[in-house]
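Sequence in, structure out. First:
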Amino acid sequence: MADRLLVVEDSKPIATVIKQIARSLQYEVTIATSLAQVEEILQKDNDFFAATIDYSLPDALDGEAIPCVLSYGVPGIVLTGKMDDKTRQKILAQAVIDYIPKENSQAFLYLKRILQWQKTNHKNNILVVDDSSAARNHIVELLKRRNFSVFVANNGVQALATLKQHPEIKMVITDLEMPEMDGIELTNEIRKKYSREQLSVIGISGAENGIHSARFIKNGADDFLRKPFCPEEFYCRITQNIESLNNIAQLQIAANTDYLTELLNRRAFFNEAQSRINGYAKRHIAYGLAMIDIDHFKKVNDHYGHEAGDQVLRVLALYMRKHFGSGLIARLGGEEFAVLMPGIDEDQLYGKFEDFRRDLAVSSIPTGEQEISIAVSIGAVLNSTEPLPKQLNEADNALYHAKDNGRNQLCVSGMEDEH
């Protein structure tokens, strides 16, 4: 079900723009053009994810719609044509998500970003560390207003324990002055375990001495805020650091993922496979390493075209996820794929690879108006104690044996004559 947005706006052109923005983000939109209409709508139904609120309406010239919307528990973003300091302070004194001056087209671009953040911020986990419950609760309230998922700790020792329990935490906001372990020590300890690409740290202090910001940064913090801070500055710093982390994560995904199939690429497979093999060996888990190649793939491209060939590769990736979901799957390049698969014993592993080959052999792949049947050859090595490069070479040799022996078959290294 789509999230619902209440648009409180008496200007039809502006309401239309907001509606288009919201719909592009999959919001379901309801428009109110006056305070009376807002009250009428919310009295009947206040199940809205958020609202955009025009500061000045025909029957509410001085922001009266803001407390009205908020009183129904609907988070609000205020749009205002008034830019004086008194109006700004009046808006910020209320529990709004944000306010946006209607100065130019940038206002609507920023609104789109906020509406997008409100939908996605729950995926961003933030740990707030402060021994003062009042200060801690204030920061938590600000974060929850923006839909962040929040954890709390009273001091640095508790914070480290919470980080260990919840590796999904992306950011730590820590006060400086705390018992047992202060914010500087905590930041130093965090950086021993987590890189800047994994976790962002923002230091906070109410101390007058400006040296604390430099100390935080030099000990590994990404940013610093001096108390008391205004909500605008707080949100800007939080958002900037979260976006930076998310951008890094997206770049890492792009660097490790095959663009066509969204499987791991060759580089990522080589980086991860050896670590998994070491883990399987340590825990005495049986595993198989297989090389998979589509038979006569050049004929698919030549006869049906490269778009059809790309579709075949994408569908093959889906079949691999279906059969080898608990393993490590990669496209090494062209029509060549690799699988590292844990199992119970060699017979089970052999069965998994065979089930995959048979399932694919009896299936047809829709590509536009036509359907294509394909087969694969598989070369595998089971429970080898050799280093990864040598295992891959053995699997590759077994693959060539399968090709030479007639294709559409599985060949296991060292067992060529047994199956």
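Second:
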Amino acid sequence: MGCRSRSRRRERAPRRVYHLDLDGEQTRGARIALLPGDPGRVPRIAYSLDPEAQELAFHREYRSYLGHVRGEPVLVVSTGIGGPSTSIAVEELARLGVETFLRVGTCGGISPQVRVGDVVIAPGAVRLDGASVQYAPIEYPAVAHPEVLSALVAAARSLKKPHRVGILASTATFYPGQERRDSFSGYVPRALQGSLDEWRALNVLAYEMEAATLLTMASAFGLRAGCVTGVVVHRGRSEKVTPRGLKRGEENAIAVAAAAVEILVSP
């Protein structure tokens, strides 16, 4: 399942892109990028791929490292939180020649099927993110590329990580969009009251904030994308993310993503 070209390759290295503060010389023709939300998570992911990975830039919420897997250059770039900042990262990475994107993130479980520490691999996402509607109409699905999805599932199985394959809900806001009442006001607008129970009844596994934007954009651009998130809290039991839960969810998601990259770059 090697990383094959999915778009027209440029003969010259692309010019510097503004928000990521990167150019084609720095990215060395990388065609795969892993996308955590948190800039602080970027070095951990990069070193899990390549102990000699190097930082390229850190501009606003966008921190980037470059490593190599089986001789292939691979980027790790943070997107920040939510669809708008994710859309900028995907736009600019695509302009630099990236063709395969893996979101490596965290999520809050809402389904009784998942537990803290589980990995959720998403074949698709509910488009509550806001940003994706400016790339494709709401009827257009936010779905993972089958090759990336297959690599993530194979990676989770080979590592024997607890995992579920299922739908995520990507929201535009962390508090009202996920029907959280631990906000400043404690109030959830009427249109969103009961939404958590509804998504749970529809077999959505967890909430997060970036997958729908990434999956919609990649499909619309003719590129490949997938998403793996670690469950760091279960909303049916608690609103509080504990250090132990965060560590388990992050570590499992990172391990699966790194193993999936190995599969994707294999000939």
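Remark: The CA atoms of residues 125 and 168 lie 5 Å apart.
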